[in-house]
Recover the amino acids of this structure.
């Protein structure tokens, strides 16, 4: 122990030890400083580190300006001559990269190259830089695509190739049915074409791209649906009433049928086709006509004149001229009226009020036991003529009134008086078909009514017979006139005989009388003959002198 203490107390030994420690410390400092300066020179290097490649080309050691120049020189115009050629067997279209929205992001590649070894803590940076020789960083070509522009290009191509699917259907025209087979639609497979475009532009060269098309098959034909569309029960033709009151024949509907097994066989053959193209297949449809056919009804409708009657009038005086105007107005209002089976005709309803606003004029009428003037005078001749036509057509008259006094244009008992709001002429269509009332007034003042319909019994004829029961002779009524010279008479009104008349209908089947019955009794008042009798006495000086 003492020997050891002595050695440490030796001054030479102590100095030697300190020198060694100083040398070691100095060496550490030198090495640290060298490492520090080396690290700073590496980390502060503004150039691209070695081991960095852009699109396969070594850009290590390039300054930022050199890198920028290199990228611009190499890639700025490299896409100008590159195109994509889209084609099929019958189509070709060439588009530039710019047309489809493809460009190179040179700034992005520059930033990526300069950012290698410059991110993170200094130690991690040194590690990354040191590994570049063995594990270089390869920056791919920064191709960018404008998705909206690319979509527009693809959609524009698709518009050229796109065809819509033709849906199968059955077309029925009249009694024929045709099955129209569906046809496939076509369109571009957009996703596949997009992938082909993005893959092709990586080479930055002109490339040919075959346009991929996708088939859109038509929907399958449903046998039950087609069958239900074809099957139809027959329906008889019928006579219908139109909105304007006229009659028309609604056409018959033919029945249709088809063998369902045969239809299924046709459909299966169409569905098994490899190429779904449009095709029209006539179907074996069986047609059944209904019992009542259109042509038969059209031949029956308004086929026959059931009856026709005429009366005449004069226009030789102001009163008669006015009567003629009224007769023509009322006849025009009735002309063309159609009555369906069971419908009732009303004279007052069809003709309406007889007012001056409608053009009616003043003429003689029978009113309150006298012959007076009133609007619409003379139209009773219209109702009378029509009444006789209705009787001769064997229609059922539901309302009829005789005149107060007799009339001269038809035999007694065959007239029909009307007065709006009081007396009407009504009759029903008791036939099985519509009837039409035709009215005509000739230039020679003959009024004719014809009832047109369908006469199922042409051998049956109707006659009208009047049987006078009694007659009341006209009496003379004198009216003293102080303004008329004594002994002179002036007839004011001729007067008319009164009468009681029964009217009968006789129905003949050929020459055989099968019915003879009274339909009504008409009672006509007697209209006195009116005479103005002079009662004024004349003096001697009143008479003219004579030689």
């Amino acid at each position: 122990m003492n020997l050891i203490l002595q050695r440490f107390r030796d001054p030479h030994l102590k100095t030697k030890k300190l020198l060694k420690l100083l040398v070691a410390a100095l060496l550490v400092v030198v090495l640290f400083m060298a490492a520090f300066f080396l690290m700073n020179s590496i980390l502060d290097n503004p150039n691209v580190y070695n081991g960095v490649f852009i699109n396969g080309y070594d850009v290590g050691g390039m300054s930022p300006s050199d890198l920028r120049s290199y990228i611009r020189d190499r890639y700025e115009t490299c896409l100008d001559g590159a195109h994509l050629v889209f084609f099929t067997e019958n189509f070709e279209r060439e588009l530039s990269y710019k047309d489809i929205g493809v460009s190179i992001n040179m700034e992005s590649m520059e930033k990526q190259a300069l950012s290698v070894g410059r991110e993170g803590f200094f130690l991690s940076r040194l590690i990354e830089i040191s590994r570049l020789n063995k594990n270089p960083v390869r920056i791919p070509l920064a191709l960018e695509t404008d998705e909206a522009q690319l979509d527009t290009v693809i959609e524009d191509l698709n518009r050229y190739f796109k065809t819509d699917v033709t849906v199968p259907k059955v077309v029925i025209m009249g009694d024929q049915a045709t099955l129209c087979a569906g046809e496939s639609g076509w369109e571009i497979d957009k996703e596949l074409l997009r992938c082909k475009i993005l893959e092709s532009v990586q080479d930055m060269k002109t490339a040919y791209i075959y346009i991929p098309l996708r088939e859109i098959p038509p929907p399958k034909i449903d046998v039950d649906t087609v069958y239900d569309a074809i099957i139809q029960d027959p329906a008889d033709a019928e006579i219908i009433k139109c909105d304007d009151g006229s009659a028309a024949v609604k056409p018959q509907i033919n029945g249709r049928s088809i063998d369902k097994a045969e239809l299924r066989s046709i459909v299966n053959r169409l569905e098994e086709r490899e190429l779904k193209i449009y095709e029209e297949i006539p179907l074996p449809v069986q047609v059944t006509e209904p019992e009542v056919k259109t042509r038969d009804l059209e031949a029956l409708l308004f086929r026959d004149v059931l009856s026709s009657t005429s009366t005449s009038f004069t226009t030789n005086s102001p009163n008669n001229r006015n009567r003629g105007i009224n007769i023509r107005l009322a006849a025009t209002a009735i002309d063309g009226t159609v009555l369906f089976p069971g419908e009732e005709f009303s004279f007052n309803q069809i003709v309406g009020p007889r007012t001056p606003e409608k053009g009616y004029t003043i003429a003689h009428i029978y009113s309150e036991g006298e012959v007076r003037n009133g609007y619409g005078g003379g139209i009773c001749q219209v109702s009378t003529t029509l009444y006789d036509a209705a009787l001769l057509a064997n229609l059922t008259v539901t309302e009829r009134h005789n005149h107060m006094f007799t009339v001269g244009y038809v035999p007694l008992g065959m007239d029909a008086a009307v007065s709006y709001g009081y007396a009407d002429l009504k009759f029903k269509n008791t036939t099985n078909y519509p009837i039409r009332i035709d009215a005509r007034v000739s230039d020679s003042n003959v009024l004719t009514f014809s009832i047109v319909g369908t006469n199922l019994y042409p051998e049956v004829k109707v006659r009208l017979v009047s049987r006078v029961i009694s007659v009341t002779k006209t009496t003379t009524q004198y009216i003293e006139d102080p303004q008329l010279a004594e002994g002179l008479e002036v007839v004011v009104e001729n007067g008319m005989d009164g009468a009681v008349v029964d009217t009968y209908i006789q129905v003949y089947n050929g020459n055989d009388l099968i019915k003879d019955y009274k339909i009504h009794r008409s009672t006509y008042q007697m209209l006195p003959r009116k005479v103005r009798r002079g009662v004024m006495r004349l003096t001697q000086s009143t008479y003219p002198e004579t030689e």
Notes: The radius of gyration is 60 Å. The chain is about 30% helix and 30% strand. The first strand starts at residue 52 and ends at 54.
